[in-house]
Amino acid sequence: MTWRILALSGIGCVALLAAIAATWLLLLPGAPAQGTAPAISREESEATLAALKPPKRKRPLIAIVGINDMTETTDYLMPYGILARADIADVLTLATRPGPVALYPALKVQPHATIAEFDAAHPDGADYVIVPAMTREDDAAAQQWIRSQAGKGAIVIGVCVGAMVVANTGLLDGRQATTHWYSVRDLQRHSAIRYVADRRLVVDRGVATTTGITASMPMALTLIEAIAGRAKADAVAREIGLAQWDARHRSEAFRFTRPFALTAIANTLAFWNREQLGIELTPDVDEVSLALIADAWSRTSRSRALTFATTAEARISRGGLRILPDQVAADWPAKLTPPAAIALPPARALEQTLRDIDARYGARTADFVAMQLEYPR
């Protein structure tokens, strides 16, 4: 009798949990909002550029800081790659401790310096500090260093959920800000911060923030325009394959919807069908295209992107960054090698990768990835 009672109780608990889950799913929006992003006035654009003018040097010094264990891939590499190719500033990648930076969800790089080494070489600080998303948004070393750089006059830019790292320093108190759509509620818990919707980039008195992941592309171009003018920014935009790059955004288009939740659940439960996709790491690889491709494939919940090379030595990217292979191998199985989008300009590489994900796993998974990247399609 006891075992029957236990069995029935277990079945009842499972049924209750299933009912709760089904109710939760039904209450989620069926689709993201449709519509056109609101226009941005010329006055607002000019004010943004004025607020991002170099605060110290004619040729600015830009530092991109991350923690060694788990800094977001595209947040860290895309601003570096775009700004380095523009050649209008000295751009350095930094880590809080010695050693490589393990990026998530993919790639590993050797930064140019630690924050201590940077401080010794540049006691007057950077002109701009770019803060990517980090798994520890309250990392003490990162926060202390960001505050110290702001105190030396640097403009601080929180990319994606890097806005939460900046928020935890107190630098956003009394200011306007934005962040990745998934973290908006976390940002709004800071009562001293005013969230701004429908903008990919928000600048307020020396502190800037962006929406999710791919917003670092228009952010970097806006920074180039502020430093070197519109013609230079347009030239770099053409080079990376981006036709439009202002701060326009439709925030309501990025929400936690029923299709997003169902895709996450279904792909995660299909654990027996997980793939490890190999991307060959070659000298002069475009670090921006590589970041976008590896990031996108690693967000499907069906696959993870790994880099491989014939030796364990780091490969030097197009922008001069040392990227470490995940595995040493002469080749990779053809069926587990993504199509060669790596040779395309970054914006086109991402578009092609989303099409490749659609072909391999279906349209819902491609939409699921684009939503995580906060990429308007």
Structure, described:
By secondary structure, the chain is an alpha/beta fold. Helices cover 41% and strands 17% of the residues. It has 13 helices and 17 strands. The strands form four sheets. Strands 6-3-1-7-8-12-11 form a seven-stranded mixed beta sheet, sandwiched between helices. Strands 2-4-5-16-15 form a five-stranded mixed beta sheet. Helix 11 (287-297) links the parallel strand 13 (275-280) and strand 14. Helix 11 runs parallel beside helix 12 (346-361). The termini are far apart. The model has no long low-confidence stretch (mean pLDDT 93).
Question: Quick recap of the structure?
Answer:
By secondary structure, this protein is α/β, with parallel strands linked by helices.
Key terms:
377 residues; globular; alpha/beta; 13 helices; 41% helix; seven-stranded mixed sheet; five-stranded mixed sheet
